[in-house]
Design brief:
It is a single chain. This protein has 229 residues and is mainly alpha-helical. It has one domain (2-227). Helices cover 78% and strands 0% of the residues. It contains 10 helices and no strands. It has helices at 2-10, 14-38, 45-65, 73-86, 89-92, 108-140, 143-165, 173-176, 178-190, 195-227. Helix 3 packs antiparallel against helix 4. The two termini are 32 Å apart.
């Protein structure tokens, strides 16, 4: 554990990891207070969604910290595939804002802060993991391949958000329910002009644009701050 702590410090990831953990604890505390006060477990699904959002961050952190030791192409391929599979869970929490409505058991503003804090954590966990992998791909290949990786990740992530929110699939279905998931994807590809396929494409494109703009904002902010040093 001490060696891991030192490695995080040496590679400048300890501070952000602690801040992300603190932010997640805040969200869980706000939810816990709500549950105790109301005696309800209305938003308990947010805990699971937050857990899933941490998975891609831990995977990217693993690749970043132990890049020099990860020589096996098979292991790297498995890690990257798993990251891509779970990446949509991070921005997916933004769609949990659909659950926001006046419930009167607590002030409306309280539930808004509650859901938004979970969505905030999901966005940051997803984008910070993407930043690390984007830099890793650029170092391994080149600038163009790095940005291609970003575009593919955000596009597939956006389609994953659609599958999760509207078709009710999740990352585990790749293993537990692959036939139904494959059938759903093929149906959209084979009938691209059906109302369902057009709806899926519209949601995917809009989310892709939103996530790309947000990611570009983050990258420009990081570059601007680094240039001032």
């Amino acid at each position: 554990m001490y060696q891991l702590w030192q490695l995080l410090q040496r590679k400048n990831r300890l501070a952000i990891l602690l801040v992300l953990a603190l932010s997640s604890v805040f969200s869980l505390a706000v939810l816990g207070v709500r549950m105790v006060y109301t005696g309800e477990i209305t938003f308990r699904f947010l805990v699971w969604n937050l857990f899933l959002a941490w998975i891609p961050y831990f995977i990217s952190l693993t690749i970043y910290l132990w890049d020099e030791r990860l020589k096996s192409g098979l292991i790297l391929g498995l890690l990257l595939s798993t990251w891509l599979l779970f990446f949509p869970n991070s921005p997916y929490i933004v769609t949990d804002l659909l659950h926001f409505r006046p419930r009167y058991v607590v002030p409306t503003w309280y539930d808004l802060i509650l859901i938004y804090s979970f969505a905030w954590n999901g966005i940051w966990l997803g984008f910070l993991s993407l930043v690390d992998l984007h830099n890793w791909v650029k170092k391994r290949f080149n600038e163009w391949i790095g940005w291609l990786f970003v575009l593919i990740s955000l596009s597939l992530g956006s389609f994953g958000i659609y599958l999760g929110r509207y078709e009710r699939f999740n990352s585990w279905d790749v293993v537990t329910n692959p036939l139904a998931l494959t059938r759903e994807v093929l149906e959209k590809l084979l009938h691209p002009f059906s109302s369902a396929a057009v709806g899926a494409a519209s949601i995917t494109l809009l989310f892709s644009a939103f996530l790309l703009i947000t990611y570009l904002t983050l990258r420009v902010a990081i570059a601007s701050m680094q240039s001032e040093k």
